[in-house]
Amino acid sequence: MPENSASAIAEADAWMDVFLRYRFVHTAVQDAHGQWLIQLAPSSAVYLLDGPQEVLELARNLQEILAETDQDGR
Prior knowledge:
Blueprint: H1 6-21, E1 27-30, E2 36-39, E3 46-49, H2 52-72
C-alpha cells in the first residue's frame, strides 16, 4: 500500500480513533500535512508521527505487545 494512499490515511485515522477511545493515547492532533502530534499522558512529551505509515506501525507494535501480554496471562 503506498505510503500516503487514501486507504492508508483512512486506516491511520481509524486507528487513531481507537487509540483515543481506549486511552492508549491521551491526545492527538493531525496537521495539514498528515502528520500526527500525540501525547501519551497529560504530562508526557509530545511525539510526532510522520504520516499514516507511522500510525500504522504504532498500531502493529501495540497489537504485538497486547498479544504477548495476553499469552503471558494464560
